[in-house]
Amino acid sequence: MVKKNRQKIEYVKKCPECNSKNLKKDYYKAEIVCGDCGLVVQENLIDQGPEWRAFDNEQKQKRARTGPPIKYTLHDKGLSTTFSWKNIDAYGRPVPTKNRAQIYRLRKWQRRTQIANASERSLAIGFAELSRISSAMSLTRSIREQAGMLYRKAAKKNLIRGRSAKTVVTAAIYVACRLNNMPRTLEEISAASGVERKEIGRTYRFISRELGLKIVPTSPMDYVPRFCSKLKLSQDVKTKTIEILKEGADKELLSGRGPTGVAAAVIYIATVLCNERKTQKKIAAVAGVTEVTIRNRYKEIVDKLDISLEL
DNA sequence: AAGACGAAAGTGGTTGA
DNA sequence: TCAACAACTTTCGTCTT
Fold this sequence. Notes:
- This protein is mainly α.
- It has helices at residues 57-63, 97-114, 118-136, 141-156, 165-179, 186-193, 197-210, 224-230, 235-250, 259-273, 280-287, 291-305; strands at residues 23-26, 31-34, 40-42.
- Helix 6 packs across helix 7 (197-210).
- The termini are far apart.
- It binds a DNA duplex through residues 198, 201, 256-258, 261, 279-281, 289-293, 295-296, 311.
């Protein structure tokens, strides 16, 4: 359902003369006229609606020349100016009656300029959150944009209802990373965004299903460059790792295993082979798995590929 | 003392009846 | 809806460097 963007003016409801509710708005003469007795009940009417009409969302977007104010801070936690509903001034004195009407108008416009409507608002919150998280994770521009696009799509499909904007944005980032073959682990994204891991996973599954995204399972290869550089490993190790992974993929012994665990184990093997040994603990920390998993994987791989690791 | 190893029990999510 | 299940984690004792 599309919400009307038009602001409601507080119109007179009944004709004071004949009590008829049959009032007609006349935007050309800018007045409200009683449909029964012809009395002009309100003058100087301002037509706050657009002069065009739109019959669907696309038209609405095309024709709208203005949007909500692009000031993210307005949507930030209490950073924006608000008017108290109480009729007292900054010193706690009651506002004189003659100024009340003015204050009332100020309040009204304050509200109106801040929030165009609920969906625009959550969009703004989302984008503010998006830029925060993506810079914390130093994501590339194209991933940011894709995440933004996904978020917009999700918003259009009303998928955010019942979820927090932040969670949906976070899930969008996760998806965008995967689509660009630059996967991040759920832990990494969780750390940068402050959203719980399982919450991200749930939301990510939900939006990828609803938006009909085809997401291929991640390959351990995608993690290698990032993990290696975090561990400050040489190019030799990286090359070796990729080599082993390719061989492993050919023999189909990597399927069904967590890609991060496999990547970590193969990196471990490569460091040993290249005499650049890192502890399992360090690799495990970078990859977000436990040492035990590394051990299990690398035993399997060494067995199947006949790699001898003399120490 | 730190790292590596492995057994055993626990966890969260998927699957199939 | 529930139990079975696979992958992975946690925990902990033991061995190795």
